[in-house]
Write a structure and sequence with these properties.
The protein has twelve helices and no strands. With about 290 residues, the protein is mainly alpha-helical. It has one domain. Helix 2 runs antiparallel to helix 9 and helix 6 runs antiparallel to helix 11. The longest helix is centred in the N-terminal third of the chain and has 28 residues. It is globular. The two termini are about 15 Å apart. The model has no long low-confidence stretch (mean pLDDT about 90).
Length: about 290
């Protein structure tokens, strides 16, 4: 069952990437789509929560730590997307994607050393192979002139934010999943992300949306929501030290094939090598 949830989560994540790429090609504003995505996801998730269905959502008492995690993750979810977009423009796609992928070490480390998950020796080899494959499969890193300390920090922020987001989901699954449902938890995160994104648009004086942006935002919100929820379901059934590398490697492998078939991408020899190692790592992790 865990593999089914992983498959569904990966499918949803791939859908997000393709929707946003289509939106960029059609000259739509990605931040506007993200803002709609988060409010749509929050409302759908809230409607499906056990607490709302039992009419107890208003009276529920949440631990302060859990409230803090929801607020922090809500900020990180949308801030990371904004920083990632800026990083691609300022320091290049290769460096930005490498920073995002290698953040995988955070949830793996927390799963193994904080929560004490036990896995076989071959699976450790699979984790190492996964990390190597992710580095090899990022787009070619083109050197760009970094204009100041702020640009140099962009990949570092992506590395930390992406790792923190994954760790937050793992912490919820192990400590707080008995306190509130997955739907209410994700709904809270998405609503905070919506507020942060709306604040950015107000500051820019851009708080207006086209019908296409609203449509793309709602579509993104549905798959974005279930990408997170299915990932949490998988974490309940399989060690996080395996779930996170399997999900990340699957995303890159399948994303590469989609890019070749749909977007006519042409992987380099290094990327093909990474693809081969990624397939080996999946065999080791799933064996």
């Amino acid at each position: 069952m865990a593999l089914l949830y992983i498959t569904l989560s990966v499918t949803c994540s791939l859908s997000i990437a393709q929707i946003l790429k289509l939106a960029e090609n059609r000259k739509m504003r990605v931040l506007h789509i993200l803002v709609i995505n988060y409010i749509a996801g929050a409302l759908i998730s809230l409607a499906g929560s056990n607490e709302l269905q039992s009419l107890a959502a208003i009276n529920i008492e949440l631990p302060y730590w859990l409230l803090g995690i929801i607020l922090l993750l809500g900020f990180i979810f949308i801030a990371n997307m904004v920083v990632y977009s800026k990083s691609i423009d300022r320091v290049g796609m290769g460096v930005s994607i490498a920073a995002m992928r290698m953040s995988l070490i955070f949830p793996i480390a927390v799963s193994l050393f904080v929560f004490g998950e036990m896995i076989g020796s071959l699976k450790y080899l699979g984790i190492v192979a996964a990390l190597v494959s992710l580095l090899l499969m990022v787009p070619r890193i083109r050197t760009r002139q970094i204009s100041g300390l702020s640009d140099a920090w962009l990949p570092v922020i992506i590395f930390l934010f992406t790792g923190a987001a994954d760790v937050g989901l793992k912490v919820y699954e192990r400590i707080f999943s008995a306190s509130i449902s997955e739907n209410l938890f994700v709904s809270g995160i998405f609503f905070v992300s919506f507020l942060v994104g709306t604040g950015i648009l107000i500051k820019r004086g851009e708080l207006h949306f086209s019908f296409k942006e609203i449509g793309y935002g709602i579509a993104t919100g549905v798959v974005n929501l279930y990408s997170s929820i299915f990932l949490i379901y998988a974490l309940k059934l399989m060690p996080g030290s395996l779930v996170f590398p399997i999900v990340n490697v699957s995303l890159v492998v399948l994303g590469t094939f989609i890019g070749i078939w749909f977007w006519k991408d042409k992987p380099s020899v290094k990327q093909w090598s990474g693809l081969a190692i990624a397939i080996i790592s999946l065999i080791l992790l799933l064996g």
